[in-house]
Amino acid sequence: MTEQARRSFHSDIEEISDLIVQLAARAGDAVARATDALLRYDLVEAQQIIDDDEHIDIAAIEVEEQCQSLLALQQPMAGDLRQILAAMWITAELERTGGLACNICKGARRMFPAELPPKLRGLIAEMSEEAIRLIRLSVDSYSEHDAGLASALDDIDDRLDSLHRVFVRNLIEVSRAMDLDVQPAVQLALIARYYERIGDHAVNISDRVRYMVSGVMPWRGGIARHATREERVVQELAPDPGEMSSNGEDKPD
Q1: 243 lies in a domain?
Q2: In a domain? residue 239
Q3: Residue-by-residue DSSP string for the chain
Q4: What is the pTM of this model?
């Protein structure tokens, strides 16, 4: 690659990076607005967020097209190639994050007019704040090429995972007390999962950043960690066999 071509390449990469930061801001804003619409029972705003997701999709396509153009015209190698691949992967994660914000709004519509129990409202607000923080940190690691911050995201995400488990337990308790019908309970379980998935997308972004900076593919180990985490959640939420036998409901004949 000639010196002029390299200068042009880096200028294009900087433009792509700026677009990704803007895309992340839109995705984070969509999550915040979706949470606000859910907590305020604002179906008009929920529909507006769903409609606005088209802007996130268009922005994502613009980034992808610029990346494809660089691949075709510059034929980059090594670190330059990793920057383009990481940009494409990160764009996809942010586009999916915007889609999850839409899913939160759709869940709010499906559970209307059921009211959220106070215990669950606070947890939803906490999950939203943590999810937005993870988006911001992951994109900061990308824009600053900060592999250290990117490496920390998996541990930082543990708090959102913990909030998700607490929410599910509280949801089960509220449902057992007959304070919530089945339909809104199901929607709230899905909504909580959407916030947890937003955190996962942020961690995926951090993995792409680590690959971009070092060339190492950390998500290969992340697959095993995710499976272990899912197994732990199932075990924690499963009823205690001793309790089941003591009340006589599930005791064998």
Answers
A1: no
A2: no
A3: --HHHHHHHHHHHHHHHHHHHHHHHHHHHHHHHHHHHHHHT-HHHHHHHHHHHHHHHHHHHHHHHHHHHHHHHH---HHHHHHHHHHHHHHHHHHHHHHHHHHHHHHHHHHTTPPPPHHHHHHHHHHHHHHHHHHHHHHHHHHTT-HHHHHHHHHHHHHHHHHHHHHHHHHHHHHHTT-S-HHHHHHHHHHHHHHHHHHHHHHHHHHHHHHHHH---THHHHHHHHHHHHHHHHHHHSPPHHHHHHTTSS---
A4: 0.83
